[in-house]
Fold Protein S100.
Amino acid sequence: MPTETERCIESLIAVFQKYIGKDGNNTQLSKTEFLSFMNTELAAFTKNQKDPGVLDRMMKKLDLNCDGQLDFQEFLNLIGGLAIACHDSFISSHPTTKSSPPPTPSTPALSPAHLPQHVSHACWRK
C-alpha cells in the first residue's frame, strides 16, 4: 500500500498527465493547457489575482528553456514554489508548540515572486 507521500507524487503525475496533450504535445503543457490547469486545479489562486497578467508572467518565469511550454520539471517548480509559499504563510500565521498539532494551512495570495529563486532566468528578464 502506498504511503501518503507516494500517493501525493502519483497525484502530481496524474494531474500533469491530465492536462498535457490537448494541444498535440504529450510531454509538455502548452500555454493554453497551463491556463486550463491553473483555472481548474488552482482556481482559488487564480481568482485571487488582481493582475490579469500574473499567469502569463508565471508561465514565462517557469519556462526555463524558453520553448513556450512547461515540461514536468518546470511544472514541479510551480508546485514547489506554491508549496513553499503556502508553508511560509502557514508558519508565519500559525506558530506551534510541540504539544499542539498544527492547524490546516490556507492558500495565500501568490505571485511569480513566490516561485523558487532558481526559476528566475534569462527569458524571464526579457
User: Anything to note?
Assistant: Residues 20 and 29 are 5 Å apart (CA to CA).
